[in-house]
Amino acid sequence: MKHVIVGTAGHVDHGKTALVKALTGIDTDRLKEEKERGITIDLGFAHLSLSSGKTVGVVDVPGHERFVKNMVAGATGIDCVVMVIAADEGVMPQTREHLAICSLLGVKKGLVALTKIDLVDRDWLSLVEEDIRELTRDSFLAGAPIIPLSSITGEGIKEFLQALERIIETIEEEEDSGVFRLSIDRVFTVKGFGTVVTGSVTSGRIKVGEEVQILPTGRKGKVRGIQSHGVTVESASAGQRAAINIQGVDKSEVERGHVLCRAGTLIPSFRLDTWFQHLPSAEKEIKNRQIVRLHVGTSEIMSRLVLIGRDSLPPGEGVYAQMFLEKPATVMAGDRFVVRSYSPVTTIGGGHILDPLPRKYKKTMVAYESDLDTLRQGAPEERIKTIIRRAGWKGASTAEIIVRTGLGTSRVKPLLERMAGEKEVTLIEEDEKRAVSGDVLQSLKETTLEKIALYHRENPLKEGIPKEELRQLIGNFVPSRLFNHALGELEKLGKLVVEKERVRLPHHIVSLGSLETLRTRLEERYLKAGLTPPTKREILEEGLSPKEVEIVLEILIKEGVLAKVSEGLYFHRDNLNRLWEDYRQLLLREGKVTPLQFKEMTGLTRKFIIPLMEYFDAQKLTLRTGDYRILRGKV
């Protein structure tokens, strides 16, 4: 069953709160100041039982121009608006502004409550009705019922309820992303229960006992209880007003504008790609990079509006825009927003979010507007492809794709699987289904082969490049999983060879060429030196090229001719093997050997004794126990 939220709108003192009380019996003015001043300052909430048995939530908003930001917070998420216009005053400034705000927020259904008819005569009433039709002529309220009524005498209330019910029956259930979201509009504590937050459930469903998270703070808690329309329930779903008791979260950690969701489903962002529409009624053009007030969900955030491809925007025109936020917003693609000027504060436009996690826009990004065209008007599959491509090397998880397209899980998952099957995307994390664009993967493969070829040209005597060094050359921002996936595919295609931790092209063969003489020289030098070989530093002091010595030593070690005992100290393998056997025999005879005994056996100095004994420890010939070494396995 489609849950419905009805919201009021209209100028101050036109009777919104009185009408809600006449309909529901609930006085939504709860603040002491509201009672004293006789005007609504903050949001009020009620519920209305219809003759059909359905109960709808009611949000009563303030009408004063000073509290429009509260009005926007309340209007977010409503399905049907009751535009309240007093018969004695008619259309007023906030009537027009509230109608514009509801239009910008995507409200599609509503009706007009023409209140206070007990204060005017019939002729005046007809003139006001004519003004209302003119006001609504080009809006979503064009042709909507205009119901004259009095909340004092009760005249017209029955007819109003009947008209409201007929409209509610026509409201269709929209596609639900499945991601539970509640934009918090109120937070308070209840003795014995703790923190309670209220708001309209934008999408998804939550149950008692589930873990939730408050964003953008990241604070986690558990749902202890849920109420909807004053009744305790086990769950709340999209389209319902809900009061949720959260265990493990203090009231001081929550405020209006925060979003309640499941952990790991939403990502706060300081930057948004949007479609922005400048209101025709605005008084002046918008300048590029102008500071504005962004109203999205129940939050108000100071933002910089960057017009894409424009230096200014006249009233009545639309444009793609990137918004840079002073503090993070927790939103999804498709969310509607309202923009008000910094000073003086008036509503100047609004629109909807195309990508809540975009890269920073630069004028050199020639395809940027084309991407936004797809995100705004493209088919679901094309929007998913665009988001995955925009995610670049990092790729996008299923959860991120849902947030960045606004599409539901039931649509995203099968489309991802089909695209993966056709190699349009690659899934590099099966659990999360993190998808990387086929174009990005192809680019990575080409770059990988280019970097390996370059390495071979610069290091012809090295058999291959270490994997991690290759990843650093490409860019360490490339995730390891994606990098290894690309290597695996290239290896299957026979375009490279992976040997342990090194990578080379198939045709690459090491040829020492002119360094063959140096190889022979160093091998003979280390063989003749016995157990007192020169250090690498001493070799270099003979005037040899450091790079050539490094290459040849690496080859000799790889071939097993030399063994690296410690940093800069190498032994010929034949000499080391003989010492290994002599040392083993000594250990068998003595049971345990000290450094002094090792010295007596070899005649070596401490310069060689300590590195050699530690080398044999590392090679698992010996085990150190205190000042002694024993044969490993003889403990």
Structure, explained:
The structure is a single chain. This protein is α+β, with helices and mostly antiparallel strands and 635 residues long. The protein has a six-stranded mixed sheet, sandwiched between helices. Strands 7-8-14-11-10-15 form a six-stranded antiparallel beta barrel. The protein has a six-stranded antiparallel barrel with strand order 16-21-19-18-22-23, surrounded by four helices. 34% of the residues lie in helices and 28% in strands. The model has no long low-confidence stretch (mean pLDDT 90). Helix 9 packs across helix 10 (409-421) and helix 14 (516-528) packs across helix 16 (546-558). The chain has five domains: 5-170, 3-Layer(aba) Sandwich (Rossmann fold); 181-261, Translation factors (Elongation Factor Tu (Ef-tu), domain 3), CATH 2.40.30.10; 269-368, Translation factors (Elongation Factor Tu (Ef-tu), domain 3, Beta Barrel); 378-511, Orthogonal Bundle (Arc Repressor Mutant, subunit A), CATH 1.10.10; 514-631, Winged helix-like DNA-binding domain superfamily/Winged helix DNA-binding domain (Arc Repressor Mutant, subunit A, Orthogonal Bundle). It is elongated, with a radius of gyration of 37 Å. The chain is built from 19 helices and 32 strands.
